[in-house]
Amino acid sequence: MRLRLTALAALVGLLSACAPQAAPAPTPLPPDYLPTVVALTGQAAFATAAALTPSATPFPTETLPPVVELPTATPTLPAGFTDYAKIRFLAPGPMSSVTSPFIFNAIISAGESERIQLDLLGEDGRVLYRAIEKLTENPLGIFQRFEIPFQIRAVSEAGYIRISTKDDSSRIQALNTLPLLLYSVGTNQINPPGNIIYERVAMDGFKEKQEFFGGEVALNGRIWPFNDQPFVVELLSTEGKPLGTRILNMNGIDTQPFATVIPYKVSGPTPARLTFRQENSLLAIADPELGKLVYVYTIEVMLNP
Asked: Which carries the bigger pLDDT value, residue 6 or residue 201?
């Protein structure tokens, strides 16, 4: 009996030695180390993603050239030139190239005579086209459209559109001139009107039919001359006789200030027309009535002793 128990015990021990050993239980991480593990795992993931993401190849950027402002066809006028011209050119603008016939548009305020005269002059002053029309007097002006034909012998030459109007005493009330380039063949090249829609004379503190006393008319303001020729400033009676005259010399063709005093002598209240006029020295032919005038600005005044 004792022998059987000993044999059984030996068999059990042999079977235990032949069985595979179980893996040891994992050692738990300390609680303080868990955030560090998460952070390290995340950094590794981001590093892997960054390594797998292709980088963009930069392209060379184009450097644009600086913007250069081109000069305007007419100078920019300073403050004060805000009154629309009595004869306002709309199209074509100054120094436009035109062939025959061409369309001309303007807003014209006729004088007291209610008559306007349009002349197309050649470079020497000869009349290439003339139109005389009745036009109702309107201080704001009335739109006018003309079709102007012309003939020239040369391929091209300078030309001028000159429009004038008179008052009821046959004095020039307004006159304005537009320079053009006339071509016998080709196509029209139209420029915008620019600043020529405004009067070339701007006077400070002056109003229509202003009264003067003491034999002097004091004037000051600004002028934008058509050319470098002098301006003649005079007081004309209703008969067209000068009651006082002053000469304003121009310093180039840019806008410039002026100040002058015109003396006069009258025996009683006398209506007069204050007149600024300038001539075009390039014209060789003088018109019997308008001469070589290129611009005239007028305003009525009352002269007292």
From this structure: 201
